[in-house]
Write a structure and sequence with these properties.
The complex is a heterodimer of chains A (154) and B (609). Chain A contains 7 helices and 4 strands, in the order H-H-H-H-E-H-H-E-E-E-H. In chain A, strands 2-1-3-4 form a 4-stranded mixed sheet, covered by helices on one side. Chain B folds into 5 domains: 118 residues, Glutaredoxin (3-Layer(aba) Sandwich), CATH 3.40.30; 210 residues, Rossmann fold (3-Layer(aba) Sandwich); 84 residues, Roll (Ubiquitin-like (UB roll)), CATH 3.10.20.600; 90 residues, NADH-ubiquinone oxidoreductase 51kDa subunit, iron-sulphur binding domain (de novo design (two linked rop proteins)), CATH 1.20.1440; 55 residues, Alpha-Beta Plaits, CATH 3.30.70.20. Chain B is an alpha/beta fold and 609 residues long. The chains are: A alpha+beta (154), B alpha/beta (609).
């Protein structure tokens, strides 16, 4: 099971040096997160210590070692979004989805809310991204509505 | 809503037949940058295609075409649409798909532009004060079509450069006075010269597109709008330093930019502009894209190199500098996106032309991402040395809601702010550093009197604290302690002497950190203390946040003159602190209030302050 997807990735990077990040990116693309077994599998095949993989995976914000929700909501927390009220917007979404304190995924694993530093769309701040679709000029109400529309159209 | 209705009623009648008047030469340009796409420009393009088709106007024959273009800077007014009908240009703003059919009927076929949807005078003042070199082509050409770029003289700079010797190219770039646009402002020509003299092969050239500053999006827009100019700049740079391999390190948060770069690279390779024996000069050059994985520190040169090598992105101490020992230990030049895309026009038009723009020590133009509480937010390109005032009031159109200008933050989390008292200051590398800020990569966030400066510096510090790689102690622990102090101040628990303590720790971190991130992390705090010390003191001594941003220091009161007795605040209050009965004005019981702000947000008349 693991083998097939991973072998494809291995073939792609077998001869390239410094490919740890690219491998992890492809693994995450395939599984949605980085399963522990895959790391050990690659470590053995490439003769790179597993600690290297884990070191890289925990360093970069992009990698997840735990499965994430089915739908990803990304809230931008850049300067422009902060000044224009990203914080109240995020609080509203957390309340709407009933995400527990200290968590970022809902109980039913339907939604994961993540914050990122800047999506670079500052002129339409605050920005909310629901499954890669960008919503600009948000407010707590608009964000809540966008989320409801999304659930309806799902 | 009213406008929408009008559209429907006017277009309900049968569309005029195509034979009424078909323009001979028609181009429709729609902005498809990230800002444009978020506003729905793809739907607008689709609508143009299908509407033009239904009118018997073939959408893409010869010059009758609907073009995609990159960002033209004025994202606040998206979706922007240019209609060029027989040479006459009209630009529309805020276009929605249902508005397309009226534009086609009245303008393209009828010959009369729909005046009420045209851009206002602010669109022109926004553009008139700018000097566009880099952004000239963004918004004019289709970024996914190499012919559009070569059609306006693209790759001529590379052709000219390859006909010179590498030494001549370096001399030309040195004479132009071009300085690195990534922030520090090192002379590009000098960097190349150092690398070309370094021992060791192969050499590498890296394009740094890891635009991590929150509040900056210049590099993204340049790549999305004109990816070939970056490739051309890299070819010129690679030739000058004697490198055959280029890398573009780009953050994964920019999927559209990555996609356009991939298209551009494959098109350039097909044309022989990349690969073996370019322009039959015997020069080989290829470019690879490396995606970042979400770490701000990877914008730092040595951390970026570590990341390309597949390691944790941690910086190392310099020297040796990357020009001597860079990627895989070989001589490496790292240039920012904006620096590289300046090169084609420098080589084509000559160093003299370029150095005639700007100030004595800062040459050329700089692209800024103008955002925050300003009317016209967007991407601007101005000559070095322009005053802050001109940027904000002439190009930016003044403050949003005409509030009072307080400060503008430049340089992101590494920079500082320019307060209202310095509004006539020229914008160039030296002036910005002299007041404790820096050019940075070019984010400009405008703040008004409703922005709390303590909260702002806390925001930046929590960003740098979070992004600190943890290798050196001053940055890892110092920023943590500073953040604790700032948090305490914003929570109303500030102590006497906290300001002095912040100044002391800040100075120490600046002196002793390993890399640029730590050395500049305290800047936002130091700069706001310098210019807005009274705000810090108000938080600590009076327990008041003058901008009423810090929650714990807010005091909510009902303005009885404005209160319309609707009772909305009463219904949302979670702690029963609001006293209200029908037809009576609301009152807040301070002893019960938990300062959650729910009433403030619920009040439709802004009577709660």
């Amino acid at each position: 099971m693991i083998e097939k997807a991973c072998r494809k990735i291995l073939d792609k990077y077998y001869l390239e040096k410094g490919s740890v990040i690219s491998i992890l990116q492809d693994v995450q693309e395939a599984y949605g997160y980085i399963p522990e077994d895959t790391v050990f599998w690659f470590s053995e095949k490439l003769n790179i210590p597993a600690s290297n993989f884990f070191g890289v995976a925990t360093f970069y914000a992009q990698f997840y070692l735990k499965p994430r929700g089915k739908n990803i909501i990304t809230a931008c927390c850049g300067t422009a979004c902060h000044v224009k009220g990203a914080e109240p917007m995020i609080n509203r979404i957390r309340a709407d989805l009933a995400i527990a304190e200290g968590e970022d995924t809902t109980y039913d694993s339907q939604f994961t809310l993540e914050k990122i530093a800047c999506v670079g769309a500052c002129s339409i701040a605050p920005v909310l991204i629901i499954n890669k679709k960008i919503h600009g000029n948000m407010s707590p109400e608009k964000a809540s509505r966008a989320l409801k529309d999304f659930e309806k159209n799902k | 809503m009213a406008e929408k209705k009008k559209t429907e009623s006017k277009t309900k009648g049968k569309p005029k037949k195509a034979n009424a008047r078909i323009p001979k030469d028609l181009t429709v340009r729609v902005c498809v940058g990230t800002g444009g796409l978020a506003a729905g420009s793809q739907e607008v393009i689709d609508e143009f295609y299908s509407e033009l088709k239904s009118h018997g106007l073939p959408p893409c024959i010869e010059k009758k075409c609907v073009n995609k273009t990159g960002c033209r800077g004025f994202c606040a007014k998206d979706v922007l649409v240019d209609v060029i009908s027989d040479g006459d240009l009209s630009t529309y703003q805020f276009i929605k798909p249902d508005m397309v059919s009226r534009i086609i009927n009245e303008h393209i076929i009828g010959g009369n532009p729909v005046t009420e949807w045209l851009v206002g005078p602010d669109y022109h003042t926004f553009h008139d004060k700018q000097t566009k070199i880099l952004l000239k082509q963004c918004g004019q050409i289709d970024p996914e079509d190499i012919d559009a770029y070569t059609g306006i003289g693209g790759y001529e700079g590379a052709r000219k450069a390859l006909s010179l010797t590498p030494f001549e190219v370096i001399e030309e770039v040195k004479a132009s006075g071009l300085r690195g646009r990534g922030g520090a402002g090192f002379l590009t020509g000098l960097k190349w010269e150092l690398c070309s003299m370094a021992k060791g092969t192969p050499r590498y050239i890296i394009c740094n597109a890891d635009e991590g500053d929150p509040g900056a999006f210049m590099d993204r827009s340049v790549i999305e709008g004109n990816p070939h100019s970056v490739l051309e700049g890299m070819i010129i740079g690679g030739y000058a330093i004697g490198s055959n391999h280029g890398y573009i390190y780009i953050r994964a948060e920019y999927p559209l930019a990555i996609e356009r770069l991939e298209i551009a690279i494959s098109q350039a390779t097909e044309r022989g502009l990349l690969g073996k024996n370019i322009f039959k000069t015997g020069f080989d050059f290829d470019i690879k894209i490396k995606q970042g994985a979400g770490a701000f520190i990877c914008g730092e040169e040595t951390a970026l190199i570590a990341s390309i090598e597949g390691k944790r992105g941690m910086p190392r101490s310099k020297p040796p500098f990357p020009v001597n020992k860079g990627l895989w230990g070989k001589p490496t030049v790292i240039n920012n996106v904006e620096t590289l895309s300046n090169l084609p026009s420098i080589i084509t038009n000559g160093a003299k032309w370029y150095s005639s723009i700007g100030t004595e020590k800062s040459k050329g133009t700089k692209v800024f991402a103008l955002t925050g509480k300003i009317k016209n937010s967007g991407l601007i390109e101005v000559p070095m040395g322009i005053s802050v005032k001109e940027i904000i009031y002439d190009i930016g159109g003044g403050m949003e809601r005409n509030r009072k200008f307080k400060a503008v933050q430049t340089g992101g989390p590494s920079g500082g702010c320019i307060p209202a008292s310095h509004i006539d200051m020229p914008v160039d590398y030296e002036s910005l550093i002299s007041i404790g800020s820096m050019m940075g990569s070019g984010g400009m966030v405008v703040m008004d009197d409703a922005t709390c400066m303590v909260d702002m510096s806390k925001f930046f510090l929590s960003f740098t604290q979070h992004e600190s790689c943890g290798k050196c102690v001053p940055c890892r622990i110092g920023t943590k302690r500073m953040l604790e102090i700032l948090t305490r101040i914003t929570e109303g628990k500030g102590r006497e002497g906290d300001i002095e303590l912040l100044l002391e720790i800040g100075a120490d971190i600046k002196l002793s950190s390993l890399c640029g991130l730590g050395q500049s992390a305290p800047n936002p705090v130091l700069s706001t203390i310098k210019f807005f010390r009274d705000e810090y003191e108000a938080h600590i001594k009076d327990g008041v946040c003058p901008a009423s941003v810090c929650k714990a220091l807010r005091r909510y009161v009902v303005n009885a003159e404005v209160c319309k007795m609707c009772g909305k605040c009463f219904r949302v209050c979670p702690s029963g602190a609001i006293k209200w009965e029908p037809k009576k004005k609301a009152e807040i019981d301070k002893s019960k209030c938990v300062k959650c702000g729910a009433c403030f947000e619920a009040c439709p008349f802004n009577s709660i302050m």
